[in-house]
Amino acid sequence: MAFKYNWENTAIPPENPKNTASAFSQWVYKESHHYSNTNTSSSFENKLQGRRAHLAIDNFFRMSWAEKYLDSDDLSEWIIEHTEGDARSGVYYRASRLQINGKPVHCSPDLILRHKTKDQVLIIERKTTFVPIYKIPENGWPNVQAQLWCYSWMDCVADANEVILIGQLWQNQRNGTLIMCDEHSLWKRDDKEFHDRCLSWFKTYGGEFMNL
Question: Any idea where the domains of the chain sit in the sequence?
């Protein structure tokens, strides 16, 4: 499925938008890609569980990328507040500032971590892809941006001084295994350009941003 540049100009609002971050993300994906049977960026499908999932988090912080962009190379600096296991058991969070037909958007990220000494929250959404890293848009996939933007306004993190959003990419291998990529997409909630871009998509989708 090829990426469609300037897709916002031709995006068609859904007739009955659902008040979930995943539904909004799926709509952005559909509108921003030319149709094909190949999904360029898909959900993680809960392939990591238990100890393996925890090791994946630990390994992420050991990467040079994390040290460079997060100024952190040790998982012990963070408190894990939410994992995919919580999502599988039905845990979700409200984003009261984001409204669809008068209802708050429901969110269920893959990971939420809170720094132990800084007023900083890290939200990670894991995605698998067959696309080589060099072919991914410079700003990352729009659907991943949209989903993480919703997460950044969850009530449980709304008061944090800094919210860092990461689209963590995993490469699908021919043998069916997954390998964490060396590079990932990163945004921050207080980035005005990022916020305005996602908000414009959200409004086209049928949403409203509430200044609470």
Answer: 18-209
